[in-house]
Amino acid sequence: MTQPPTPHNEPAADALWNGGWYRFARRLASPNFGPRPPQATVDLIVIHSISLPPGQYGGDEVQRLFTNTLDWNAHPYFQTIQGLEVSAHFYIRRNGELWQFVSCDERAWHAGSSHYRGRDNCNDDSIGIELEGLEGTPFDTAQYETLAGLCATLPQRYPIRHIAGHEHIAPGRKADPGAGFAWAALRQSLGWPTQCFPQDVA
Length: 202
Description:
Structural class: alpha/beta
CATH architecture: 3-Layer(aba) Sandwich
Number of helices: 5
């Protein structure tokens, strides 16, 4: 197995990025972001799952949540999260469609209170990827294909050395992406060594 590639500035890598924006993602800028701390090392990918309302797919509610335009009265569940201001860098639909809301050079609001590889506040030095889905249930093949391609691309620009689920960085508080996520398939697709993954999935 190989390590994630070392970040570089070759033209082939630069062609994939416009600053911290991935050229093959649909761009929809979120206001929910901020600067990363000085000297932050962006070496972690965090995998999440999300659907709004939970278990319902295909609408634009997640995009609206991340851009603060969700109609809180459109569904009873939305009343329970009213006023929430969150974001992720990326969002992968069930059909594999890739969206980006925050530049990877910036700090998105996806991790919350968290701790991993000896550090707190994982928002500071991670890239958050949301999968359209419900924690504990399976994800679609197209999502894994997009996710693997994105994860393989990120180390060309950022010093990625770790990948984990929200459940691993906020255990007891979060449970996504959950048992339905095929970590073994992702590991096989990426060819990264076991030390890049959480112990319980490696």
